[in-house]
Amino acid sequence: MKSLVLTALIVLLSGCTERTEFGSCIGLADEKDPKLVYKLDATNLVVGLVFIELIVPPVVVAVDETFCPVGRK
Q1: All residues at 6 or more sequence positions from 27 whose CB lies less than 8 Å from its CB, including other chains
Q2: pTM of the model as a whole
Q3: I want to staple 22 with a disulfide (CB 3.0 to 4.6 A). Which of 10, 51, 52, 69 is the partner?
Q4: pLDDT tens digits, residue range 14-71?
């Protein structure tokens, strides 16, 4: 059972968006580039919410991967 949970966690975390063609994703406290349009990344948000009891995934998502650039202004 533990290996199944660990495998599911690894697969979901590897599915997190870290970068797009316009640049790296940013966290809640990071400053947005005024030349780019950012969008809340739903995949990262879902991973953070699903694993909220594990502490680490939601923290990583909130600090580093909340908003991803989707285009230029």
Answers
A1: 62, 63, 64, 65, 66, 67
A2: 0.69
A3: 69
A4: 556 778 889 888 988 899 999 999 998 888 888 788 878 888 878 888 888 889 899 9
